[in-house]
């Protein structure tokens, strides 16, 4: 792909920042007091920063700066941010569960390989082991991440219902109502469909990349 | 002349013998005769792609020679899939919204377990709004069956589910809140000005559709330059009126889902208007005896775009 020097410099900076943030998250996770239950309290700041930064990836995909189809990237980034900010950020008791800690650990494990791989691609040095790790780590991590994400929602449902999180009730001038608990219950089955579909897509990519 | 037909993957699909001045419809008819399951409306032909270029589709108006297919040449066949009549799709997709609004109003007790307090402003508005919505779709059914002279007889069967999902889904989402016993009505001023503008725009939209009908002799697919009234300002005043009608409806009946529906419809019609406007200017270029499309005319928004 032909890229301007400015675009390349920007991507270098962007990926370096993402690498640094996820490395910081990994370091904090490794030393988190209280194990998985304390993971959110320890590692949330760099992860929240990294996931805010990741919003730029939707723009990257839309303007052709990075690979990936714009809707797919948007679903992935926004899906993560909904759990991270919308659920864990709003419900401290859920953030302190082990399943929330497992989710952050899986994300971090994925990203400490993915961003160095991108960065390596930009400077033209990608060790074979890095490519292998990039296209193999997901084999266990992707299903684990999916399960942890669903687990977080399930753990959060009682609190969402009881507290009326994000609930909009009639009557109001916009004639609109919303119930987050119902939304979550309707959306969870989609994981069963899109999860395996995405996994198959990534398996195909793995075969292509590792054959080359 | 002899024409070789091949599939998109290059598989030979037979050789057709045609008169030398044969056009694309004649090619389709001959292919349908050779392969009866591929009726004419299911077919599309392309010139073979050269290099990585996008294959060029053969339009129905051209003769094969003019399109660049010589004796002994090759065309590429694409199966468009099972087809359904254009009219049937429209009748079915509009039937949903036509019935859904009155159903939510009349079925309030069954759906919400209670009714809007009788005699309230909300109850009064809901009757008029359900009527306006239903009349809009009754008008569309009437136009589909009695006014429009479509140039395409059919569309792919898959469009049926997509179109019905869109119209029925939005109708249900808007109706659920607009016909809710807890509905919050608009102010008097918004309600009255909205409804009046809505009917005015509906009338304008219908006027445009009769005008378009008059451009095309029955049974033909002739395309001419529409003139007069709002057509002096924009290429697609029927879309302008349709968008205006939905904006007005939402002023009289404020719901989040209603505005979302209006926004989706407007975005879709803007894309179509841009395409139609471009085609008009390309087709009526003022050369070789063709009329010249009025240069000052805009696509959708008078004087602006
Ligand atoms: N989401 C929404 O709410 C939404 C979206 C789209 C449309 N609509 C409504 O549905 C109506 C019909 O839509 P449409 O897209 O079919 O409208 P359209 O393309 O403007 O055409 C209406 C009819 O007139 C014919 N026609 C158009 N230009 C002509 C010309 N220059 N000469 C001769 N005949 C011509 C068309 O034939 P062809 O078959 O050759 O095009 C068609 O039969 C719209 O006006 C609008 O009210 C609503």
Question: What does the model show?
Answer:
The complex is a heterodimer of chains A (212) and B (305). Chain A has one domain. The two termini of chain A are 18 Å apart. The longest helix of chain A is centred in the C-terminal third of the chain and has 32 residues, at 180-211. In chain A, 77% of the residues lie in helices and 0% in strands. Chain A contains nine helices and no strands. In chain B, helix 8 runs antiparallel to helix 9 (256-283). In chain B, 52% of the residues lie in helices and 9% in strands. Chain B is built from nine helices and six strands; from the N terminus they run ββαβαββαααβαααα. Chain B has two domains: 2-81, Ubiquitin-like (UB roll), CATH 3.10.20.90; 84-283, no CATH class. In chain B, the strands form two sheets. A four-stranded mixed β-sheet of chain B has the order 2-1-4-3, covered by helices on one side. Chain B has a two-stranded antiparallel ribbon with strand order 5-6. Chains A and B meet through loops of A and loops of B. The complex binds NADP nicotinamide-adenine-dinucleotide phosphate.
In short:
The complex is a heterodimer of chains A (212) and B (305). Chain A is an all-alpha fold.
Give start-end ranges of low-pLDDT stretches of chain B: none
The largest sheet of chain A, given as strand count, sense and whether it forms a barrel, is: none
How much helicity do the residues of chain B have? 40-55%
Helix content of chain A: over 70%
| Total of DSSP H or I helical runs spanning 4+ residues of chain B | 9
Share in β-strands of chain B = 5-15%
Structural class of chain B: alpha+beta
The oligomerization state is heterodimer
Structural domains of chain B: how many: 2
Strand content of chain A: under 5%
User: How far is it from the N-terminal to the C-terminal residue of chain B, by CA?
Assistant: 47 Å
Shape of chain A: globular
Mean pLDDT across every amino acid position of chain A: 94
Strands of chain A, count: 0
- Radius of gyration over C-alpha positions of chain B, nearest whole angstrom: 24 Å
Domain count of chain A: 1
Report strand order across the widest sheet of chain B: 2-1-4-3
Mean pLDDT of chain B: 94
InterPro entries (chain B): 3-oxo-5_a-steroid_4-DH_C, SRD5A/TECR, Ubiquitin-like_dom
Transmembrane segments (chain B): 165-183, 255-274
GO molecular function (chain B): oxidoreductase activity, acting on the CH-CH group of donors
Membrane topology (chain B): Multi-pass membrane protein
């Amino acid at each position: 792909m032909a890229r301007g020097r400015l675009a390349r410099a920007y991507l270098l900076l962007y990926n370096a920042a993402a690498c640094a943030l996820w490395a910081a998250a990994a370091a904090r996770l490794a030393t988190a007091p209280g194990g998985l239950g304390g993971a959110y309290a320890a590692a949330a700041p760099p992860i929240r920063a990294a996931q805010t930064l990741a919003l730029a990836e939707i723009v990257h995909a839309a303007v052709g700066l990075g690979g990936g189809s714009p809707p797919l990237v948007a679903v992935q980034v926004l899906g993560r941010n909904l759990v991270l900010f919308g659920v864990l950020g709003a419900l401290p008791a859920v953030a302190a569960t082990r399943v929330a800690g497992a989710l952050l650990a899986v994300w971090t494990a994925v990203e400490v390989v993915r961003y160095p791989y991108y960065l390596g691609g930009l400077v033209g040095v990608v060790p074979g082991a890095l490519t292998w790790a990039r296209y193999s780590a997901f084999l266990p991590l992707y299903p684990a991440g999916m399960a942890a994400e669903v687990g977080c929602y399930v753990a959060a449902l009682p609190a969402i219902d009881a507290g009326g999180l994000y609930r909009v009730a009639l009557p109001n001038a916009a004639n609109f109502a919303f119930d987050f608990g119902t939304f979550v219950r309707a959306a969870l089955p989609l994981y069963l469909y899109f999860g395996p579909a995405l996994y198959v897509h990534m398996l195909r990519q793995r075969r292509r990349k590792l054959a080359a | 002349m002899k024409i070789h037909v091949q599939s998109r993957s290059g598989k030979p699909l037979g050789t057709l013998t045609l008169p030398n001045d044969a056009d694309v419809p004649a090619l389709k008819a001959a292919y349908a005769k050779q392969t009866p399951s591929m009726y004419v409306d299911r077919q599309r032909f392309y010139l073979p792609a050269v290099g990585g270029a996008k294959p060029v589709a053969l339009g129905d108006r051209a003769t094969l020679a003019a399109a660049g297919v010589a004796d002994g040449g090759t065309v590429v066949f694409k199966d468009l899939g099972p087809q359904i009549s254009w009219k049937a799709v429209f009748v079915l997709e509009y039937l949903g919204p036509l019935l859904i609004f009155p159903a939510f109003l009349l079925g309030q007790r069954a759906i919400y377990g209670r009714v809007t307090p009788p005699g309230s402003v909300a109850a009064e508005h809901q009757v008029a709004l359900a009527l306006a919505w239903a009349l809009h779709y009754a008008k569309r059914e009437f136009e589909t069956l009695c006014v429009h002279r479509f140039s395409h007889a059919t569309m792919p069967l898959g469009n049926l589910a997509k179109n019905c999902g869109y119209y029925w889904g939005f109708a249900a989402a808007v109706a659920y809140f607009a016909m809710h016993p807890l509905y919050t009505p608009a102010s008097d001023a918004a309600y009255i000005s909205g409804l009046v503008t809505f009917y005015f725009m509906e009338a304008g939209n219908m006027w445009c559709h009769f005008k378009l009908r008059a451009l095309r002799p029955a049974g033909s697919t002739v395309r001419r330059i529409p003139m007069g009234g709002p057509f002096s300002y924009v290429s697609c005043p029927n879309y302008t009126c349709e968008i205006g009608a939905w904006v007005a409806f939402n002023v009289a009946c404020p719901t989040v889902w209603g505005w979302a529906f209006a926004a989706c419809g407007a975005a879709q019609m803007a894309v179509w208007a841009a395409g139609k406007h471009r085609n008009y200017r390309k087709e009526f270029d003022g050369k070789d005896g063709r009329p010249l499309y009025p240069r000052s005319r805009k696509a959708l928004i008078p004087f602006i775009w």
